[in-house]
Amino acid sequence: MAKKRANGEGNIRKRADGRWEGRYTAGYHPETGKRIIKNVLGKTQAECKAKLKKAIEESQSLDVGRADEYTVAAWLRTWFELYAKPHIRPSTMNYYHRNIEQHIIPAIGDIPLNKLTTRDLQKLCNDLQSNGRLRKVQKKEKPGLSNSTVRGIHMMLHNALDRAMKEKLILSNPTENCIIPKIEKQEMKILRPDPISSYLNAAERRNALPMFYLELVSGLRKGELTALLWSDLDIQNRTISVSKQYVKNPNGELALTRPKTETSVRKVSIPQEAVDLLISEHDKHPDNPYMFPSPITGEMYYPDSIVNLHKKILKDAGLPHIRFHDLRHTFATLALQNGVDVKTVSSMLGHYDAGFTLRTYTHATRQMQQKAAEKMGSFMAQVM
User: Fold this and answer.
1) Radius of gyration over alpha carbons of the chain, in Å?
2) Paired residues of 268 in beta bridges
3) Which of 173, 167, 160 is nearest to 62 (CA)?
4) How far apart are CA 226 and CA 48, in angstroms?
């Protein structure tokens, strides 16, 4: 016969197989109102009593009626639509959606949300790092995802599971104790000062000098560059107004959005040489609103087309490969090395704070520190 206990403490009985069973009310079904009865088992009465106490405490911290409704897949899709999607940029939306559907759900999507463990997530991270690439061409070169991508997936899962905790669907966040890969320290690639002339000459031969000259003196993101209109140029004050960018949405279509952050909405000063080149470019198509219309369609330049053109220019100039984004790094590095202060460079790049710029371009600021040390050394030698 089950041993009677006080209300809320459950009941304990010894079963025919010799084990002890504790039964308790875990909650009430949200639709029927019926009690949800659960049980725990123990080899001894003391073990069963301890398990029962823990189970009751946990049930009081969970919305038991809803906790069993979700698999990992169902919760991630719910979290994405309700909590993430309305508050993120299209490019981030695309990144989240791709990771959820292509990397996470195929691996752990069928696991009940309240049964997901740190081990499940650790195995996911390990598998992604060792064999996570999906495209055959990329997989052949390097089968695993980069450390930064795995870290990004882990962070996204952490945010989604934090929300599940707040909604009392899980007791704790299993991402907390995962061991994730360290940040990879890669040497930043830039276009060195000596080859810049060869690069720009090659760009001119492809009738693209104004675009790539502007990039090297402003460090615009490619989506910002392609979204520029002629009306964004202030000839008198020699500034470019950056207030929009083109990015891909989850459907792979281009979408016109505000720049990456609020600080990315900015006015960027440019040299007179850049203004003169832009005026000459506009004279070629005076009725077109785009600053750099496609020579094929007359419409906006597709961002990927600019990347392909950049690759052709490098090849024409006989220069080693660097990404188009590395032209942005080139601008920042050369500006810092030529005495432009960090705060100014940060505002021109549209970074959210100068500290981020400092951390990103430590190689350039280190060189500036060395020059400052040499100047101080020369000064002290004169006064001693």
Assistant:
1) 29
2) 240
3) 167
4) 67
CATH assignment of 72-166? 1.10.150
Say what the alpha-carbon torsion angle 70, 73, 76, 79 is, to the nearest 10 degrees: -50
Q: How far is CA 18 from CA 12, 15, 285, in A?
A: 13, 5, 89
Six-digit token string for 26: 């875990």
How many residues does the structure list for the chain? 384
How many Å from the N-terminal Cα to the C-terminal Cα in the chain? 97
pLDDT tens track of the chain, all 384 residues?
444 444 457 899 999 999 999 998 877 665 566 777 889 999 999 999 999 988 888 777 777 667 778 999 999 999 999 999 988 877 788 889 999 999 999 999 999 998 999 999 999 999 999 988 766 545 556 788 989 999 999 999 999 999 998 888 888 899 999 999 988 776 778 898 899 999 999 999 999 999 999 999 999 999 999 999 999 999 999 999 999 988 776 666 777 887 767 778 999 999 999 999 999 999 999 999 999 998 888 888 888 899 999 999 999 999 999 999 999 999 999 888 888 888 998 989 988 877 777 777 776 666 766 776 776 677 667 766
Collapse the DSSP code of 77 into the 3-class scheme (helix H, G, I; strand E, B; otherwise coil) and give the result: helix
CA torsion angle 150 253 107 76 (round to 10): 90
Would you list the DSSP string of 105-167? Answer: HHHHTTSBGGG--HHHHHHHHHHHHHH---SHHHHHH--SPPHHHHHHHHHHHHHHHHHHHHT
Q: Which of 24, 87, 338, 353 lies closest to 196, judged by CA?
A: 338
Residue 190 DSSP one-character state: -
Task: Output DSSP code: residue 103.
Answer: I
| CATH architecture type of domain 193-371 | Orthogonal Bundle (1.10)
109 Cα distance to chain centroid: 22
